[in-house]
Amino acid sequence: MRVGFVGDVAPLGCYANPDNLTISPALNQLLSSCDFVVANLECSVIDGNETIMKDGHAIGINENALNFLQRIGVTHVSLANNHSVDFGEKYLHHTINCLRKIGIDYFGTIDKPSVLLKYNKDAMIIDGAVSCDTNPDTKQLTMLRDLLPSKQKCTSVLYVHWGGSVEDGHVPNRQQIEFSNKTIGRFYDMIIGSHSHTIQDLIGAKRQRVFYGIGNLCFASLDSGKFLSNRRLERRRMGRVVISDLNDKDLSTFIRDIYFNDSCKISELSAFQWLYLKFMLINSSIIIRSGLQKTQESWLHIYYPVYSYFFNNKGGFISAIKKLEFKRILEYLRKWKK
Hints:
alpha/beta, Purple Acid Phosphatase, chain A, domain 2, 9-stranded mixed sheet, 9 helices, 30% helix, globular
């Protein structure tokens, strides 16, 4: 049995019309080889008469945009994230009904926290959960703090939305690492993470089985760039496809890194993009392995102007400095001193 895990999905902009979608032949062949494809649907299906039920950014799509999932070959989606209930419980259920219409199953809610995948003699159970630090709806979704791992004797996977303190960064926080070290191999055979919207390094116990962040498959609501710098936008256009082959309880994995642009095309990383990603992941590994794990959130926010100085096409270093929240930096530094 082959299961493909892809990252965050919010098909807006050009991606709202799946007829415009272009997928590279190699990626299309890879996803077509999967018996199941699992994604994180980080939005709600709306009809234009909705009311935003939260502070901050709310993400809604029209029903036709869900056909993007079909084009990719998605069979299951997790709704355990901080945007699936942006417009309230009514539109959460509306989203679920729209998914059912096109034959896509869901998990990660109070009424359905997990899903069992079966193919011939192989079986895999996937638990969906979201952590409190991502500011989710705590009444409708499966919370990581309340999650009870399945007792079924089969391969188990946790698909988790977490790491609110390190969103946009390539480094998981220490709570994520500690949780993974305690649960991998004991309760779960593999952990797939989302929410950072970036690819995060594979660090910790059984590194080939813990994917702290696999980035975006398509998060086109951010393509406007109104509240993101060019470099942050570029990082968010990268994602990781995790392919898991299960053969009689023997689980093996491999990855393919992808890039989606503003012309409705999803393809593999170019050589330059691959080098940039490797640079960021190596830098992240150095931060953790050099003993800075306890203060990595500080480093992420302080190093951001340096990233912008070298990689940002507009504004450069001074512009990046102005965009930083100085109070947030000072707060991190105070924690660092303690």
